[in-house]
Amino acid sequence: MDPRQPEFRRRLEALGFDEVRFAAITGPSRDPLAEWLAAGRHADMHWLERTADKRLNPELVLPGAQSVVMLGVSYWSTGFRPATSGGPRWARYALHADYHDTIKPALAAAGHVLAELYGVTGTDYRYYVDTGPVLERSWAARAGLGFTGKNAMLISRRHGNWLFLAALLTRVKFAADAPIKSARIDGPIGLLCGKCTRCLAACPTNAFAAPGVVDARRCISYQTIENKGMIPRELRAGIGNHVYGCDVCLEVCPWNRFAQEGRRMLLSARYDLADLSLPALLTLTPERFAAVFRHTPIKRLKLSGLLRNACVVAGNSGDPAALPPLLDLATAHASALVRAHAVWAVFRLGGGAQLVAARSGETDPIVLAEYAAG
Ligand code: B12
Ligand code: SF4
Ligand code: SF4
């Protein structure tokens, strides 16, 4: 092996990446992305459709690309505090500073190390975290960074489900790392799952179309983060107290017992967000939203999206103390999206009569539909 490759790996680990693995690009991928899209499982994430060709073929992303360097950043920590009991629940990754502010600079530094060691320029590599046209989980599995669980997650033997992934595509040809293999399983899903099906059974909204296949339309993560419109009525009860994202199919996985603390937490923790009570969320002002969620991924949801989710959580809380702020949102909030979900929540908490008495001049059809259904 070229002695520069172990040196490159060491330097990337020193930058704080917990996993550094290499895969060879040998032509277009046989990933079932096209079938997944054809079945409509991407909901309205049309950007996945638009970039499907690139996702399946790295040559279209970086002509002449030879290798993918897959990087994993653990966000598991002994200091992690989940929601206060019964309070709003947040996806664990979201209780950290935005990856744009943390992983991106480390990736830029990784590119500079590549350029220094291999004498290449910035046009010989491209890096992405999450939003690039790269099938990150497939590449990570091919590079042996972990295996694809029945929960569709890339699960690491050293970090469990708690790895954020990033990819560096390059024209440099690296020796490929071996993928994990199992003599017992024929196919990529659930290689080290054995007979376990905990994640499939635990999903609160039945989002698994098959082992390893998530239907985003039913997934709480999609509904609370990516969906910018109405949350379907039939899914709202299943959302429970998940205010942003969902980790249920990750949390139940027995492989998490091997999780180790990240070597250097590139994502800096914001566990304080889990202390926000439901009333505090329901009464957020634009100024407070901007101040609290600055530098977190949650800011991209915008205040109206977060209030929409908080209304669903409030409707599921069974707590009559949530009624006063909900009534205010239902009757006076500027966003019809927020009013509509607040109306649903008020009816669910038994405040329908009060609401109908307080209602004045509502004309928006999406809100009126909630009154009619309530
Ligand atoms: C769109 C998207 C979503 C969508 C759709 C999820 C999905 N399952 O596809 C929604 C919004 C629902 C979502 C949710 C979440 N996401 Co997301 N998401 C993405 C994104 C941007 C693209 C994924 C994609 O292409 N999906 C299409 C399907 C077809 O591909 P896939 O699931 O990636 O890969 C599958 C196929 O390749 C399949 N496969 C390969 N060969 C074969 C062969 C056969 C026969 C079969 C059946 C399958 C199969 O195995 C993989 C797993 O099923 C990636 C980032 C990226 N650029 O890749 C992050 C990413 C997958 N998400 C991530 C995370 C953390 C989450 C959440 C945990 C967030 C949360 N806490 O709320 C949840 C987990 C939900 C789940 N169980 O999957 C991480 C996953 C890290 C990891 N260790 O796996 C990623 C990689 C982002 C990152 N940079 O770290 N996400
Ligand atoms: S993230 Fe939650 S809703 Fe989505 S598949 Fe997993 S358990 Fe189901
Ligand atoms: S919970 Fe069980 S079935 Fe699901 S991914 Fe983990 S080991 Fe596999």
Verbal overview:
The structure is a single chain. A hairpin with a 5-residue loop joins β5 and β6 (154-155). Strands 1-2-7-4 form a 4-stranded antiparallel beta sheet, sandwiched between helices. Strands 3-10 form a two-stranded parallel sheet. It has 2 domains: 1-268, no CATH class; 276-374, no CATH class. α1 packs antiparallel against α5 (99-118), α13 (302-317) packs parallel to α15 and α15 (336-348) runs parallel beside α17. It is of the alpha+beta class and 374 residues long. 39% of the residues lie in helices and 11% in strands. The chain starts with a helix and ends with a helix. The chain contains 17 helices and 10 strands. Bound molecules: cobalamin (B12) and iron/sulfur cluster (2 copies). One iron/sulfur cluster binds next to α8 and α10.
Q: How is this fold's topology laid out?
A:
Elements lengths: L3 H11 L4 E6 L8 H6 L7 H5 L1 H5 L10 E8 L14 E2 L8 H20 L6 E4 L7 H7 L4 E2 L5 E2 L7 E8 L27 H5 L5 E3 L2 E2 L5 H7 L6 H7 L2 E3 L3 H4 L26 H5 L3 H8 L8 H16 L5 H10 L3 H13 L3 H7 L6 H9 L1
Parallel strand pairs: 3-10
Antiparallel strand pairs: 1-2, 2-7, 4-7, 5-6, 8-9
Helix pairs in contact: 1-5, 13-15, 14-15, 15-17
The protein binds cobalamin and iron/sulfur cluster (2 copies).
